[in-house]
From TrEMBL:
Pfam family, one: ThiS
Name of protein: MoaD/ThiS family protein
Organism: Streptomyces aureus
Domain of life: Bacteria
C-alpha cells in the first residue's frame, strides 16, 4: 500500500467538501473507491466525468486498476472545466 494525497479541483472540491485528503491505496481504482466511500453522493457522479493526473502525468484511457500509485504521490481529480 502507498500513502499519498488526493487533490480535488473545482466541482470535485465542492462535492468532496475538502480540497485534499490522504489516501492509502495500491492503484488509482483503490484510491477512488476510498474517495467514493468517504464522500457518497455528488462526488461519485463527478468522478465518473473527471480526468486524473498521477504525480503530474495524465492517466488518459488507461484502466484505473492498472495505474499503480507511488509512496508520497499525488492524485489530481480534474472535473470537466467550462471555458478555455
Amino acid at each position: 500500500m502507498a500513502n499519498g494525497t488526493i487533490r480535488y479541483w473545482a466541482a470535485a472540491k465542492a462535492a468532496a467538501g475538502v480540497a485534499e485528503e490522504p489516501y492509502e491505496a495500491e492503484t488509482l481504482a483503490d484510491a477512488l473507491d476510498g474517495a467514493r466511500a468517504r464522500h457518497p453522493g455528488d462526488l461519485v457522479r463527478v468522478l465518473q466525468r473527471s480526468s486524473f493526473l498521477i504525480d503530474g502525468d495524465p492517466v488518459g484511457r488507461r484502466g484505473h486498476e492498472t495505474v499503480r500509485l507511488a509512496e508520497g504521490g499525488t492524485v489530481e481529480v480534474l472535473p470537466p472545466f467550462a471555458g478555455g
